[in-house]
Amino acid sequence: MDLSLIPKIKHANSDNFFLLAGPCAIEGEDMALRIAEKVVKITDDLKIPYVFKGSFKKANRSRIDSFTGIGDEKALKILRKVSETFDVPTVTDIHEVSDAIKAAEYVDVLQIPAFLVRQTDLVVAAAKTGKVVNLKKGQFMSPSAMKHAVQKVKDSGSEKAWITDRGTMFGYQDMIVDFRGIPEMKQYAPVVLDVTHSLQQPNQTSGVTGGRPDMIETIARAGIATGVDGLFIETHFDPANAKSDGANMLILAYLEKLLSNLTKIRNTINNL
Questions:
Q1: How far is C-alpha 49 from the geometric centre of its chain's CA atoms?
Q2: Domain limits of the chain?
Q3: CB 175 within 8 A of CB 168
Q4: Residue 106 pLDDT more than 90?
Q5: In whole numbers, what is the pLDDT of the chain averaged over residues?
Q6: Nearest to residue 143, comparing CAs of 117, 123, 125, 104?
Q7: Sorting pLDDT into bands at 50, 70 and 90, what band is 174?
Q8: CA-to-CA distance for 129 and 110, rounded, in angstroms?
Q9: Collapsing DSSP states into helix, strand and coil, what is residue 103?
Q10: N-term to C-term CA, the chain
Q11: Considering the chain, what percentage of its residues have pLDDT values greater than 90?
């Protein structure tokens, strides 16, 4: 895949997987810069192409009192500051057609949330910005159905589409990754595995999503072995006190060892 489509991307020719990583939501400038600084150092050392991830707002919440953001423009400016400070590209998710043009002024990749990936107007609006569009596979969709989402991007005049698998709903309160879908979806576009969201346990009676962060390395290893092009990992230095999705985020201190192990697996596969 051609990572050169993304401004500021480093290590594009390393033959390693690429990484989208950062906090679930932008909670403030200091936390975003602190996380970015750590991930940039790790990915530079391991020659991993890196895109900083942070949601400028969270529109899909279980309860009305759940954290949704610190303000759209404030959060988008923080994403821009991360990019300028560390010379890395950034990605954020959008939820409405009007978000596409607004967010495209600040970030390099626009992400379509899984629940919204069938929303034609939203996908088309993202594609028409000229940015890379990261299409998250709906928890309710088969891998083969994602070819239609990719085709919407292409029909809008863009070839810049990725597919991200974030698991499939398994019963009411659990997710499962069907790794047969990775090679299938690679027929349509480069494929990313969203490791941390695949381990969510949604629809808890408390209205707060649960998760299985203890299984992050297991799922990530399987993704690399199956041939994913990239990984998506939400990470935070204090997940227990994160304002969104803390139950399934990776503790930042564990990221270096995880990525080191995954890089070794990738190198082994490359040499088969």
A1: 14
A2: 3-270
A3: yes
A4: yes
A5: 94
A6: 117
A7: confident
A8: 9
A9: helix
A10: 20
A11: 82
Q: Which residues, including other chains, have CB under 8 Å from residue 40's CB and lie 6 or more apart?
A: 50, 52, 86, 88
pLDDT tens, residue by residue, 75-98: 999 999 999 999 999 999 999 999
> Six-digit token pair at 202?
């949604």
139-159 pLDDT, tens per residue?
999 999 999 999 999 999 999
What is d(CA 125, CA 30) in angstroms, rounded to the nearest whole number? 31
CATH class in words for 3-270: alpha beta
Measured CA to CA, the distance from residue 224 to residue 216 in angstroms comes to: 12
| 76's tokens | 């988008």
3-state secondary structure of 136: strand
Determine if residue 87 is left, alpha or beta; phi over 0 gives left, psi from -120 to 50 gives alpha, anything else beta. Answer: left
How many Å is the Cα radius of gyration of the chain?
17
Rounded-to-integer distance, Cα 30 and Cα 213, Å: 24
Task: Compute the average pLDDT of residues 225-241.
Answer: 96
Which sign does the torsion angle of CA 102, 108, 112, 118 carry?
Answer: positive
CA 194 to chain centre: 6
Residue in this structure with the two tokens 């203890």, named with its chain if needed: 214
